[in-house]
Amino acid sequence: MKPVVTFGEVMMRLATPAYERFIQTRRFDVTFAGGEANVAASLAQFGIPAQFVTRLPGNDLGDACLNFLRQYGIGVDHIVRGGERLGVYYLETGAVQRASKVIYDRADSAIATIPEGAIDWKTVFADAQWFHWTGITPAISEAAARECLEAAKTAREMGLTVSCDLNYRAKLWKWGKAAAEVMPELVSLCDVAVGNEEDAEKVFGIKAADADVTGGKVDAASYQQVCVELAKRFPNLKTVAITLRGSLSASHNTWSGILFHEGAFYEGPQFDIMPIVDRVGGGDSFCGGLIYGLLTYGEPGKAIQFAVAASCLKHTIHGDFNLVRVAEVEKLMGGDASGRVSR
Q: Given 12, 22, 110, 137, which is the most exposed site by the fewest CB atoms within 10 A?
């Protein structure tokens, strides 16, 4: 099978252990993560060749990040080296009524300062079938936005399927343009778009009627019109998916998703997830599951079921990467949510 290519920033993730707060912890658990790297990790676990493209500093931290990616089967053939620093994000994991908290330290990172022409996209896409990016990348800097647009244009010209996760991050859009100014051109190049309960509203002003995200009310019917409006605004979109998270507390969420594909709607199962081990990367695991499902099943209804089940399982795993196998996801798809010991 031809590879899927993803592009974006990978950061060092420093997470407080055992639900500790920033102000009390004396150590951090170190992994590496980023939206597009997370998607590549999911696909690699599912047996889909995945190439992750980014820019890393040419120092020991950059080497550590490369080794981390390699150990999970992610292709790093097209990663370029340069820049002064690796971005960092700090995670304080919440519990019950105390929300999780993220602090970014990624200004002037290697990807944020990527020079024009650093990546030969025609070579990157020469044997690929799919390109995936997220709204995080163009939010990082003008240079990252320029490179993301160049990648999407090249992928479309070369006949790849192009997908995006809208992934609005208010803390990142600081370089001079708003998401609403940058994202339309990028999304217009996509065949597949994914968003959560609020992305379409915050980026494009498309709001679901009668939805109450903080109150846990995220009925699928309320989001069907969001899918329709996105498809109308961007005619190249053949497929639109929305994840549906009901946040009852930091430790208890409901989780589902819907898929709008070529004029028809498909709804995934709803899972009640409690307790949550780590919800960061949940949306990325949904994207990875959806890409896998669309590539392998040929049935949109089965693809959304796989995506929801895969991302449900992600909530049980520490770190951003969804380290589950196809058989585990299909077991949950089949209705076995017992969690009984496998012997």
A: 22
Q: Residue 220: which pLDDT band, with cuts at 50, 70 and 90?
A: confident
pLDDT digits (tens, 9 = 90+) for 154-173: 999 999 999 999 999 988 99
Q: Of the listed 165, 199, 284, 320, which one is catalytic? A: 284
Average pLDDT of the chain? Answer: 95
Q: Are 190 and 164 in contact, with CB atoms under 8 Å apart?
A: yes
> Residue 56, class by beta-carbon neighbours within 10 Å (0-12 exposed, 13-18 middle, 19+ buried)?
buried
Closest CA to 56 of 21, 37, 84, 75: 84
Positive/negative CA dihedral, 289, 290, 293, 295: negative
User: How far, in Å, CA of 17 to CA of 327, rounded?
Assistant: 30
Q: Which secondary structure element, helix H or strand E, spans residue 259, and what is its range?
A: strand 253-261
Q: Which CATH class is domain 4-333?
A: alpha beta
How many CA atoms within 13 Å lie on the side-chain side of 31? 18
Dist CA 136 CA 121 (whole Å): 19
For every residue of 165-180, DSSP letters joined together read E----TTT--SSS-HH
Kindly state the average pLDDT of the residues 218-239: 91
Q: What mean pLDDT is predicted for residues 306-333?
A: 97
pLDDT band at 212 (very low <50, low <70, confident <90, very high): low
Mention every residue, 6+ apart, whose C-beta is less than 8 A from residue 141.
111, 112, 113, 175
Domain boundary assignment for the chain: 4-333
Q: Which residue has the tokens 């044997």?
A: 127
* Residue-level pLDDT at 242: 96
Integer distance in angstroms from the first to the last C-alpha of the chain? 32
Cβ 82 vs Cβ 118: under 8 Å: yes
Return phi, psi of residue 242, to 5°. -130, 125
Token duo for residue 38:
């997370």
Pair 112, 106: CB distance under 8 Å: yes
DSSP state of 249: S
